[in-house]
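Weekly modeling sync, notes
Attendees: S.R. (lead), two postdocs, one rotation student

Agenda item 3: backlog of single-chain predictions. S.R. asked that every request posted to the team notebook include the full sequence so nobody has to chase files. The rotation student volunteered to paste the first one in as an example of the format we agreed on. Action items at the bottom.

Example entry:
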Amino acid sequence: MSEPPTVAPPSASPEESRALIERLLPKTVRDRQGWTTDIYAGFATQAIDPTTQNVCAVLAVIEQESSFSVNPTIPGLGTMAWKEIDSRAAHAGMPRLLVHGALEVSSRTGRSYSDRIDAARTEKDLSDIYEDFIGSVPLGKRLFEDRNPIRTRGPMQVTVAYATQYASVRPYPYPVKVSIADELFTRRGGVYFGIAHLLAYSAPYDRYLYRFADFNAGQYSSRNAAFQAAVSVISGIPLTRDGALLSRDGSAKGAGSTETALHAVAGRLHLSDREIHNALEQERSREFERTQLYRAVFDLADRTQRAPLPRAIVPRIDLHGPKISRKLTTAWYADRVNGRFERCEKR
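Predicted structure, as returned to the notebook:
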């Protein structure tokens, strides 16, 4: 979860910062003034300095995720939607014919849900259909459990869960017409929460590459992956360096592989299993680096290797999702965005 960014005097005036943003935008971007305004506002309202590197980092993510389209068209979106619907129906134990029959009824627009799904071209189109279906048809609530499956949205593809949580600790600066989730479909909202997810947290990184990896895998994932590598060094137990330090349910009873490896060397760390678990619960905050566990693991690993280990590495994660049709990884994503970032700096 992002912490409120450290407030520091901006390195340039508002006019100079806006001029910098517009100059760094790719030449092919339309409505340059609109993008400049919303990007600058995203920095200014969160007290993040719009330096050349920070601006290029944001532009690189936008270019990678949407090519500067607020509501990008996605080829084959209708087919992806049907696969998701069929998958959820199977998981809920509902006959496919029953679900498809329910989608043949007329929606609030007068067209059937089925026709609207076939015609959907953007995530906003599909999200509106899901919200209509969930709110109007009893089967919709059972099928989707009041959870819209369009979970990443907008020009920077920010998750609804992240935006909602961030808005709960730092008030969203714009009027909310429908919901925070719907604001992600706007340029101002998508850019605001995207800047927060990318930059509004402190991490021990010497390269933006690790922030790009975190943008894909979750904040602090690169730091956590380096910690897992250190745990492997001191325990001799191979670990998948995915940046996830706790098991999914986060319980001590259901300890994951990283926690289990740490239990094996608890005596050498002079920590109890409970102290280890309590420290791992800080995996998504800066506080984790201040725990005795973090310091003890790296101190022991550095002495074992007789050299300082890296404090950040790109996580090893295979990417999955309805929009992904080939083998992709977090490393691929981070490298692609980093390439765009470096080209932006040259501009």
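Discussion: group reviewed the output briefly. The chain has a mean pLDDT of 91.
Action items: rotation student to repeat for the remaining queue; S.R. to check formatting next week.
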